[in-house]
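Consider a typical record:
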Amino acid sequence: MTPTTPAIFTPGRDHQPRLDAIRGIAIIMVLLFHTFMFDPTTSGGRIFSSFISSLSQSTLLFFVLSGFLISLIIVGNPDGFSVSNYLVRRCARVLPPFALSLAFFAVKEYRGTSLWQGFQLALANLATLPNFLFYFKSLNPVGWFLFIEIHFYLLLPLVFSLWRKATRRHAELLTIGSFLLIPFAFRTANWMIAAGSTGERFFLVNRFPSAMDFFSWGMLFCYVYRHGQGQAWLRQIAPVLASRGLLLLLPVFLAVYTVLPFVFHTDLVLNNWGSYEIARLFICLIAFCLLFCIWPPAKSGGLAGKIFDSRLLQYVGLVSYEWFLFHAGIIPSVRFHLGKLLSLDYNIHSQSVITFGDALSFTLLSLIAICVSFFISAAIYRFYSQPLLKWMRGWGQKNKSTA
């Protein structure tokens, strides 16, 4: 008897809570890196700093996830795909929180000098210019992530349409290959001229289109997900891959930032082409494995299943976009003003020796600041992002029906 092929979920129509759990894992790793990163001055501090540094590439999980979801929207139904509807839905989700965050950072950074200059820079950021020209500053410290995401949203439909004369499977594979190989070639070429500061090097290896291959791993999973549903062996190994990916998540991140610099004789992964490329490969492979948590029937027992099905983690994933955009401005401000109010000495960046009291004060203030940033981000999601999302998508559907 031929087994029944499970239904494939459709982004925008169906909801897959386990993908929210992956977002929740990724945003927590990002928050830990941005909040607790400091200059190590003791042996214990160096060990902790190495662990925190290993979380710096956790944004790759978001890229791989986006590669899967956007591919499923475009490739999953090419005949019924509407470019205008797709752009409206993407803009409705991405632009309102992004624009609000840019206004927030413009006021925060330029209120004492020139607000007009801050808003000019905000407009340049909204146009994603910092991902093309080093001259433009990223107003939001994590804005580079949005630039790459937006460019992917625009580029994928275009690249897929270039292969429309091929069969559907061949078009999918050619699109995946294009996103995997062309960015790699650009990035390798940029390494030859990336001789400046770490900031300049970071810009060059992420400048359009050098970071587009992140998404190819999600696109590859989309291909496997769509065409492998009837394979019994895939159904058997899917929960194993998902649980192993979760188990190896932190060890791989830690190994990337401790073992690779030693092997390649460099102080930072970003300072060496080989260590940087291997780091990207391993982290993308882990993200690829994590996506198998949604493979039908999407049930796995044990600790991995409990983590993927955690309601709290899934809710964190729901508000992860807003939390990602605003945490870099909220957490330092709350930590600074609260520490000043309570007269707590937490400035461990400049201490030659970190005492237990200083580290404890810093940790407590940081945890409070993280909680405050979460509640503010959840409020933005609930009372700003979601109403605008529904209104913009409803407006798009109304215009489509009257056209």
The chain is about 70% helix and 0% strand. Residues 17-402 form one domain.
